[in-house]
């Protein structure tokens, strides 16, 4: 994919240090990279601070030093142009599917009825038509994550952040959802340009991403930045992917 | 953006911060104490003098010991009852059909309503009973306040044993006593600890009332104890001594809490069965608390040392919240609607029949022992009070309860949300509220009476201040349950959900209305059930303060039945009648309101 000269997001020298009793813990050690219109995966060993980094990118958490720029403007609080998908789905149990999706755009000035129509559309797009009035408890894990995806898409975000979106799902469901997320991202009808996905599943990362940023164990530093210029749809059995995965795994361990 | 939840702050809170917050709390406490003392000095000229000149003051250590012994004996019986009844209920399916609903009825009876019945049965209304009989009556009474929660705790604990553990135990040939000792008792331990906390709370509640009370024309219960000290101070309108007694009582409660229940509670957490693969957000949350708990445990090597240290540790406060969460959890189990509704009709009918039979048996024993005729008694009762009057009295009492509930709910909801959202307020207020909730509401009664009723004895305002005092006293019996349940609930909203709402920019008032209040809905219900239980108890002592100071209601009707001037045949009938009406009202409200709402609350629970 050709990269326009202007990056969408710039992560600049971001560090995160938690003060503790006696000694403090450095989680992120001066991380810098730019994000263009691309599917970017952040991989690293468990507990290395990947999710913290993602939260800082969304403005949910503040870096100890450094900053994140979105079109040149620093991010300090969650932006309406950024959608987030959570590992544990983060659905509100007392709201219906429709209510959960509408929640994403409820802070916008759009009229309530219009909000519901938009929510309805995205629920259809993720294949949950007919489940609008169901409650999260009545859905399977895969369906819950579909609600999470519809909720993020309803914002019509320019950037989509995903925190281990498939790791709470069974293998088969995860495989299907991966394909669907890629299809949605590639569909020109959606405005989403950049996707940042955090995962500890290296195979998943090389299968999906245009670029993989590899973090080391805590304190996390960037140890590799791998470009993957393979045609889509990719076959998970492609030997090139195995080689790439091996290269990344050797960097991590 | 909503503040990060308490548990995240716990993980990152530093020692320096907690130490400084402790100093702040200490300063505030000293300031409040100083102002309080000043007020006392002004109100009662020379509070210290009145404490020192009180002839009972030198006996305070002995009184404390006697009260504690009484409580411990009653608790031993309650524990034995809980284990026997609980194991029988949980192990025998058929028996549980009767034992479970019967337990539900028993715990719905306001304990203070049982007081005159126990006195009637044990002491009678004849010659003044010897101290030993008084002691027996008192221990039975405390037992009735203590027994129900641990029983439910035992049942809940046995029911929570995972099937695979049961199967494994049977596969390895564990049966009978060995199964009981190695599987059942450890499984029951955590619930037993947390419900014992509730039980002792119920026991303390009785202490300021039952140690020094007149009953009928000749009986006068007068047992050495800290409750007596407070009660005597109240009859002498001696505010200084009443406050002193209160402080001693709270001191004892607090010491037991820190030295017994907290270490036991920490230990209890170890016995909990772990369920598989908790979602990551929950896992990190628990481990954050877990680390603090472990640190806290290390300090427990020397319990006395930890008593002082724990107050300053933030973990202690987290434990406080954990404890309230556990207590809520138990109450939820106590009222678990599905289990009761799964019980076949015959079981429910039989349990009602047994309860009514027991009440009638008590009545017959009471009346027969005085060789009087029930028929004459009932005709007398009908002339003294009509069903219509009883209904009107019930409604009057209900309106007082409702008013106190509305006040309690509104302030605790506001405070609960503030505490949960502000770290600073939480650090400051939670320990203060924890002390507040440990004060048995009944111990405050004398103080409210001395301040609100005594000065207005001859004033036209008396009617108003009496009603105010009554509502206020009911409020003291209600509010803490609501507060701690709400704080606990708001603090247990999962982290990922808080982040999702922040990411989608749901903030401020909308965050409170759409997230915090629905998230606390189940806890508000549980808190309300506990609060109404506490309210009914408080009602009985709050409506009748003296012959010229009372407001009409079910509570004052009951107390008036125990007065010396009452007709000897009528008294027991009226006592039993009001107890029945009260229990029936509590049961009807439980079924019509709380149980229905609890069923709806399921949707508002977060998945484990």
What is the CA–CA distance across the termini of chain B? 25 Å
- The value of Rg of chain A in angstroms is 18 Å
Strand line-up in the sheet with most strands of chain A = 6-7-8-3-9-10
Structure annotation, total helices of chain A: 7
| Shape type of chain A | globular
**Number of extended strands of chain B:** 4
Give the structure's gist in a few sentences.
With 253 residues, chain A is of the alpha/beta class. Chain A contains 7 helices and 10 strands. Helix content of chain B is 79%, strand content 2%.
Please explain how this structure is put together.
In chain A, helix 6 (202-208) packs across helix 7. Chain A has seven helices and ten strands. The two termini of chain A are 30 Å apart. Chain A has helices at 50-58, 97-105, 112-125, 141-154, 171-186, 202-208, 239-252, and strands spanning 9-18, 25-35, 39-43, 65-70, 73-74, 82-85, 159-163, 194-199, 211-215, 222-227. Chain A has 253 residues and is an alpha/beta fold. Chain A has a six-stranded mixed beta sheet with strand order 6-7-8-3-9-10, sandwiched between helices. In chain A, strands 2-1-4-5 form a four-stranded antiparallel beta sheet, covered by helices on one side. With 608 residues, chain B is an all-alpha fold. Chain B contains 26 helices and four strands. Chain B has helices at residues 6-12, 15-43, 47-53, 60-91, 93-108, 111-123, 131-146, 148-159, 163-171, 176-210, 226-235, 239-268, 280-299, 303-310, 314-334, 337-341, 345-368, 374-384, 387-421, 423-438, 441-453, 462-491, 495-503, 508-542, 554-561, 570-601, and strands spanning 212-215, 219-222, 544-546, 549-550. Chain B has a two-stranded antiparallel ribbon. Chain B has a two-stranded antiparallel ribbon with strand order 3-4. In chain B, a hairpin with a 3-residue loop joins strand 1 (212-215) and strand 2 (219-222). The longest helix of chain B has 35 residues, at 176-210. Classes of the chains: A alpha/beta (253), B mainly alpha (608).
């Amino acid at each position: 994919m050709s990269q326009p000269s202007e990056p969408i997001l710039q992560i600049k020298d971001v560090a995160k240090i938690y003060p503790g009793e006696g000694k403090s813990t450095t989680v992120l050690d001066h991380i810098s990279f730019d994000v263009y219109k691309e599917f970017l995966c952040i991989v690293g060993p468990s507990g290395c601070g990947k999710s913290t980094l993602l939260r800082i990118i969304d403005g949910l958490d503040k870096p100890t030093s450094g900053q994140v720029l979105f079109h040149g403007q620093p991010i300090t609080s969650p932006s309406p142009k950024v959608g987030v998908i959570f590992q544990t789905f983060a659905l509100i149990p007392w709201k219906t599917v429709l209510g959960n999706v509408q929640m994403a755009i409820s802070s916008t000035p759009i009229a309530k009825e219009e909000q519901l129509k938009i929510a309805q559309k995205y629920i259809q797009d993720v294949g949950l038509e007919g489940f609008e009035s169901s409650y999260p408890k009545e859905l399977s894990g895969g369906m819950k994550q579909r609600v999470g995806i519809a909720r993020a898409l309803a914002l019509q975000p320019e950037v989509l952040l995903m925190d281990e979106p498939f790791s709470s799902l069974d293998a088969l469901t995860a495989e299907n959802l991966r394909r669907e997320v890629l299809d949605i991202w590639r569909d020109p009808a959606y405005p989403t340009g950049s996707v940042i996905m955090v995962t500890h599943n290296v195979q998943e990362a090389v299968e999906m991403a245009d670029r993989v940023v590899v973090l080391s164990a805590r304190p996390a530093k960037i140890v590799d930045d791998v470009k993957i210029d393979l045609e889509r749809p990719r076959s998970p059995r492609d030997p090139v992917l195995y080689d790439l995965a091996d290269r990344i795994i050797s960097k991590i361990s | 953006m909503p503040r990060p939840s308490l548990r995240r702050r716990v993980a990152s809170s530093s020692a320096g911060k907690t130490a400084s917050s402790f100093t702040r709390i200490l300063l505030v406490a000293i300031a409040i104490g100083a102002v309080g003392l000043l007020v006392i000095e002004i109100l009662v000229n020379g509070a210290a003098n009145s404490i020192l000149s009180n002839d009972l003051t030198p006996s305070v250590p002995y009184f404390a010991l006697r009260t504690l012994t009484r409580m411990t004996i009653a608790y031993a019986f309650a524990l034995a009852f809980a284990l026997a009844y609980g194991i029988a209920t949980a192990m025998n399916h058929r028996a549980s059909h009767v034992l479970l609903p019967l337990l539900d009825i028993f715990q719905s009876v306001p304990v203070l309503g049982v007081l005159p019945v126990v006195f009637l049965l044990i002491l009678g209304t004849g010659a003044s009973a010897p101290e030993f009989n008084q002691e027996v009556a008192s221990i039975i009474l405390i037992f009735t306040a203590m027994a129900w929660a641990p029983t439910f705790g035992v049942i809940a604990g046995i029911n929570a044993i995972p099937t695979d553990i049961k199967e494994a135990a049977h596969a390895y040939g564990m049966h009978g006593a060995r199964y009981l000792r190695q599987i059942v008792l450890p499984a029951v331990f955590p619930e037993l600890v947390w419900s014992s906390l509730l039980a002792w709370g119920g026991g303390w509640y009785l202490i300021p009332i039952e140690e020094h009370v007149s009953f009928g024309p000749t009986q006068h219960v007068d047992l050495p104890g800290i409750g007596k000290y407070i009660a005597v101070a109240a009859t002498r309108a001696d505010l200084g001594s009443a406050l002193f007694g209160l402080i001693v009582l709270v001191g004892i409660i607090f010491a037991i809490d820190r030295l017994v229940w907290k270490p036991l509670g920490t230990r209890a957490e170890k016995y909990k069965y772990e369920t598989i693969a908790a979602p990551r957000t929950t896992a990190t949350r628990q481990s954050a608390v877990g680390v603090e708990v472990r640190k806290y445990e290390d300090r427990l090597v020397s319990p006395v040392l930890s008593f002082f240290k724990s107050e300053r540790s933030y973990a202690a406060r987290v434990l406080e919240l954990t404890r309230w969460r556990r207590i809520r959890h138990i109450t939820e189990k106590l009222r678990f609607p599905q289990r009761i509704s799964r019980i076949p009709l015959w079981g429910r009918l039989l349990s009602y029949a047994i309860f009514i039979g027991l009440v009638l048996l008590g009545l017959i024993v009471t009346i027969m022992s005085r060789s009087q005729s029930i028929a004459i008694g009932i005709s007398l009762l009908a002339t003294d009070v009509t069903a219509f009057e009883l209904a009107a009295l019930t409604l009057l009492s209900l309106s007082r309860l409702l008013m106190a509930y509305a006040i309690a709910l509104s302030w605790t909801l506001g405070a609960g949300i503030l505490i949960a959202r502000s770290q600073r307020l939480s650090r400051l207020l939670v320990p203060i509220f924890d002390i507040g909730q440990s004060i048995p509401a009944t111990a405050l009664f004398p103080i409210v009476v001395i301040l609100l009723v005594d000065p207005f004895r001859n004033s036209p305002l008396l009617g108003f201040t009496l009603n105010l005092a009554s509502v206020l006293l009911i409020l003291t019996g209600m509010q803490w349950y609501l507060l701690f349940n709400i704080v606990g609930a708001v603090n247990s909203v999962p982290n990922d959900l808080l982040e999702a709402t922040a990411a989608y920019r749901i903030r401020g008032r909308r965050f409170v209305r759409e997230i915090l209040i629905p998230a606390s809905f189940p806890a508000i219900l549980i808190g309300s059930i506990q609060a109404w239980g506490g309210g009914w108890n408080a009602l009985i002592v709050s409506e009748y303060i003296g012959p010229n100071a009372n407001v009409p209601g079910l509570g004052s009707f009951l107390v008036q039945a125990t007065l010396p001037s009452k007709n000897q045949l009528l008294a027991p009938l009226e006592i039993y009648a009001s107890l029945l009406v009260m229990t029936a009202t509590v049961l009807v409200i439980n079924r019509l309101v709380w149980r229905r709402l609890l069923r709806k609350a399921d949707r508002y629970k977060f998945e484990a």
